[in-house]
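pipeline: protein-struct stage 2 | run 1193 | Cbb3-type cytochrome oxidase assembly protein CcoS
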Amino acid sequence: MNGLTFLIPIALGMGALGLAAFFWAMRDSQFEDLDGAAQRILIDDPEDQQ
């Protein structure tokens, strides 16, 4: 039972850290153009073919 006194706060802290990272990514507009990055892979750049 003593192990739970350490594990529960650690788990809550890691969850809060993950939630903070998600909100940071949302604020930095990381999720704005999801289709653009997927289609950009398929386009050949003529500059890269030299």
